[in-house]
Design goal:
With 874 residues, the protein is α+β, with helices and mostly antiparallel strands. It has 28 helices and 34 strands. The structure holds tryptophan (TRP) and zinc ion (ZN).
């Protein structure tokens, strides 16, 4: 147990920095176990006279401090485990410090650490304080000059900005000096030193400047950076076209590292990536990997403007850069791969990660008010819901005004650290609108429930819509106010044809109704027949919507809604209702047949593409279904979902076989969206067949695996074999391992696949894998592949009635917390929603949370999450 009670940081306590640092010179003498860091800071007082200088610093061995060249005696300053305090400093002075750090011993992967024998850094959010004494907050912007010195075995010496100088030193050492002309907060600082190969390219920007592009990777891996390079170039061009944003330095570098806490990091001019989000070729990466690489390369690149040039005043403003940058990367991916399919995937991710968060103990506004560890707030709410809020803003004010507001934002705030208010103010100004009610989307947690009741009047040819909203309470926010919710809608006739109607005096076939009160009545006129309502098109707001429409309307939508999101959604709604009815012991077999038949028709639709069909074929996930069932019974959901899958497999047998044969590719591999869509549908067909593992299906799956010419199909084959289980699966597993044991990113897939195994005895096998020689909890990718995938992606096994799944996860959390608190905290989530489950399961989950909370020496990170999970609910 923690003996102290950590105090939260609160938004209302924000004060501007007392001192600014205009320039800094850092000198690194890089030695793995004893690196020396000398810092020379030009400090300027910006707050009240007489205030002491207070700098953050953790795990630093202080060697010396000097003010204006005078070395301080230990009585001139105070230093403890978190701060260096110097009273009596002038209003402007030069501060020089020297510290020693041990990158080799840094297992938290925050600050300066070693990965694969190379030095690298991760400073966001508060890691820079583990490198040197500094005001570690995003509103202190400084120009950095950095000198790196190391043994020549550390061949590449990289930091932000432009290379000014490099050369040899006596004793087999060498050095490089980098200067970044753009003032930046310390969280964007980066350095890398070590043996790396490089893939080089260049790009001419919109104003005609040539930018050198370099991607640094493990020796021998440069060819696998080609797709990331291509994605980078497309991102750079896209930001010029879509937002008028040009890259600003002459050099842009990306480095891939194997040990990395999250996905990637937008350090100015020197992005650092988890290798899993950078390296790809057809043999080792799946189509999903390609898709994510494209999206994350774009995301980090887009941060150059939304994050680096304009940064956050404080960490409560995190969505200012993250929500906005996710919105930008999603828009880019939509342009690259098709908007309908992209939108469905984005909404699936939002529902899988953000909706449960919003209904659990961690529910927080897009802009939170307090935290213990900011690391815990890199959440789906900040990122994904933050993006939804921007998307709604664009829907509400229109694309043109949205662009004008963005232009104003870039012009006004370039070079500054700012707030969400200042961002929204730009849109209020260009539109002349009062956006104060819109701002509530940033301040209010929880997912609004929207209901729509409709009544058709044949005599008046009107459709009366009765819309209402309410948001359930969340921790700390017991009562909620109405939000402005844009509801995009259209009407279909009973044959699925688009119907025109009159709204606000104009004829249209689609309208956006803004539901900005608790309840609103809207009348659509000129409606020729009793229509099928297609509401919340494109998922126009992050809400849970229910309507009073009968199931037959959903069949019309599934067959014909021109809004592809709603077409997909109609199928998901039908499937969800069928599975939940079955899980509640009331299966409707006739309706299940009808559903299978409708899916069959959707699959035969010549007009829609394969990627879309693959999405239609997939049933809602077990965790998605658990959100809709109170209390959730994971075993009943699992059984009911499998039963519907089996019915579909039987009903669609011929069609699935035809798809599996017909979509087989010959000829050259292409990673493009169309080819990926064909593979997705073919693998989905195989997977569905495998729910009914007769001999010929097992043979088909084994053949699929053996004939696979790329990792997508290899994994598809393995997945199907896993469903069938038994000897053929065991053989494929060992074949796969033998073939790929030298490729860490592929072995991660091998672990992750088994973590999702729902077969008999899976929990024991997953636990057994933690003693496999290739398992390494210190590598976040490997740990996530097995442990996080099990917790989040295998509900039936995780929620084993014995509680053994919970105990296993809790043991892993405590073990990992001993060396990497940020990663340990990320594993808590599957236990946090304990109140939503059957009471006997909830009690077992809660008991594990209590056990974790009582652990001696628990990190602040994990402490914050378990105490929130255990707190009385709102
Ligand atoms: N800012 C990064 C992004 O979204 C993510 C990030 C924040 C991060 N903190 C981190 C990555 C710590 C790795 C480690 O692009
Ligand atoms: Zn980001």
């Amino acid at each position: 147990m923690r003996t102290d009670t950590p105090q939260p940081v609160r938004l209302v306590d924000y004060r501007p920095p007392a001192f600014l640092i205009d320039e800094v010179r850092l000198d690194f003498d890089l030695i793995p176990t004893a690196t020396r860091v000398k810092a020379r800071l030009s400090v300027r007082r910006d707050g009240a006279a007489g205030e002491p200088l207070v700098l953050n610093g953790e795990r630093l061995k202080l060697i010396s401090v000097a003010v204006d060249g005078r070395v301080l005696a230990t009585s001139d300053y105070e230093v403890d485990a978190e701060f260096l305090r110097i009273p009596n400093v002038p209003d402007a002075f030069v501060l020089e410090t020297e510290v020693e750090i041990n990158p080799q011993a840094n297992t938290a992967l925050e600050g300066l650490y070693m990965s694969g024998g190379r030095f690298c850094t991760q400073c966001e959010a508060e890691g820079f304080r583990k490198i040197t004494y500094w005001p570690d907050r995003p509103d202190v912007l400084s120009r950095f000059t950095v000198r790196l010195e190391a043994d020549k075995a550390f061949h590449r010496l990289l930091s932000n900005g432009n290379l000014m100088e490099a050369g040899e030193m006596p004793g087999g050492r060498h050095y490089a000096v980098w200067n970044d002309p753009f003032p930046k907060p310390c969280y964007l600082f980066a350095l890398v030193a070590g043996e790396l190969d490089v893939l080089e390219d260049s790009l001419v920007t919109m104003s005609g400047r040539t930018v050198d592009l370099r991607i640094y990777v493990d020796p021998g891996m440069a060819p696998r950076a080609a797709y990331a390079m291509d994605s980078l170039k497309r991102s750079m061009k896209w930001d010029e076209q879509a937002f008028g944003r040009e890259y600003d330095l002459d050099l842009f570098m990306i480095v891939a590292v194997r040990d990395f806490n999250f996905g990637a990091m937008e350090n100015k001019g020197l992005n650092i990536f988890n290798a899993s989000l950078l390296l790809a070729d057809e043999a080792t990466a799946t189509d999903l990997d390609y898709e994510r690489i494209e999206g994350v390369v774009a995301h980090e690149y887009f941060h150059n403007w939304t994050g680096d040039r304009i940064t956050c005043r404080d960490w409560f403003q995190l969505c200012l850069k993250e929500g906005l940058t996710v919105f930008r990367d999603q828009s880019f991916s939509g342009d690259m791969r098709g908007h309908a399919v992209q939108r469905i995937k984005d909404v699936k991710a939002l529902r899988a990660r953000q909706f449960p968060e919003d209904q659990g103990p961690m529910a927080h506004p897009v802009r939170p008010n307090s935290f213990l560890k900011i690391d815990n707030f890199y959440t789906a709410t900040i990122y994904e819901k933050g993006s939804e809020v921007i998307r709604m803003l664009k829907t509400l004010i229109g694309a043109e005004d949205f662009r004008r507001g963005m232009d104003l934002y870039f012009e006004r705030w370039d070079g500054h650290a700012t707030t969400v208010e200042a961002f929204i103010e730009c849109f209020a100004e260009v539109t002349g609108r009062d956006l104060s009610n819109f701002f509530a989307w940033y301040e209010q947690a929880g997912t609004p429930r929207v209901t729509i009741a409709s009544r058709y009047d044949a005599d008046k040819r009107t459709l009366e819509l009765d819309l209402s909203q309410s948001t359930p309470p969340t921790p700390g926010q017991p009562s909620k106010r109405p939000l402005p919710i844009p509801v995009a809608l259209g009407l279909l006739d009973s044959d699925g044809r688009t119907m025109a109607f009159d709204y606000e005096g104009a004829a249209t076939d689609q309208a956006v109704i803004v539901l900005d009160e608790a309840r609103k009545r809207v009348v659509l006129s000129g409606v020729d027949s009793d229509p099928v309502l297609s509401a919340l098109r494109g998922f126009s707001a992050p809400v849970v919507m229910t309507t009073d429409a009968p199931p037959k309307d959903r069949y019309v939508a599934l067959a014909a809604d021109p809004d592809l999101f709603n077409r997909w959604e109609a199928g998901q709604d039908l499937a969800r209702d069928l599975i939940l009815a079955r899980a509640a012991g009331k299966p409707d077999e006739i309706a299940e047949e009808r559903y299978a038949e409708a899916v069959g028709r959707a699959l035969s639709d010549q007009a829609s593409d394969e990627a879309f069909k693959a999405l239609i074929l997939a049933l809602p996930s077990e965790s998605d279904l658990a959100l809709a069932m109170r209390p959730a019974d994971p075993q009943a959901i699992h059984a009911a979902r499998d039963a519907l899958r089996l019915r579909m497999a039987l009903h669609l047998d011929d069609m699935l076989k035809r798809l599996h044969i017909g979509l087989q590719e010959s000829g050259e591999f292409s990673a493009d969206a169309a080819a990926a869509g064909r593979r997705a549908l073919r693998n989905a067909a195989l997977e569905l067949m495998a729910i009914n593992p007769r001999g010929d299906v097992v043979e088909r799956a084994a053949g699929h695996y053996q004939a696979s010419g790329n990792m997508t199909d290899a994994m598809g084959g393995m997945q199907a074999l896993m469903l069938a289980g038994g000897e053929p699966f065991a053989e494929a597993l060992s074949d796969f391992y033998a073939r790929w044991k030298a490729e860490p990113l592929v072995i991660d897939k091998w672990f992750a696949l088994q973590a999702r195994d729902q077969g008999e005895g899976a929990l024991g096998r997953v636990m057994g894998l933690t003693t496999h020689p290739a398992f390494d909890a210190k590598n976040p990718n490997r740990l996530r592949a097995l442990v996080a995938t099990f917790g989040a992606g295998n509900p039936a096994a995780f929620h084993d009635p014995s509680g053994a799944g919970y105990r296993f996860l809790a043991d892993q959390i405590l073990m990992v917390d001993g060396f990497n608190p940020m990663i340990a905290a990320r594993l808590v989530d599957p236990l946090a929603g304990w109140r939503r489950y059957l009471p006997e399961l909830g009690a077992l989950m809660r008991a594990e949370l209590v056990r974790i909370a009582g652990h001696e020496g628990l990190s602040k990170n994990v402490y914050e999450l378990v105490t929130r999970a255990l707190a009385e609910s709102a």
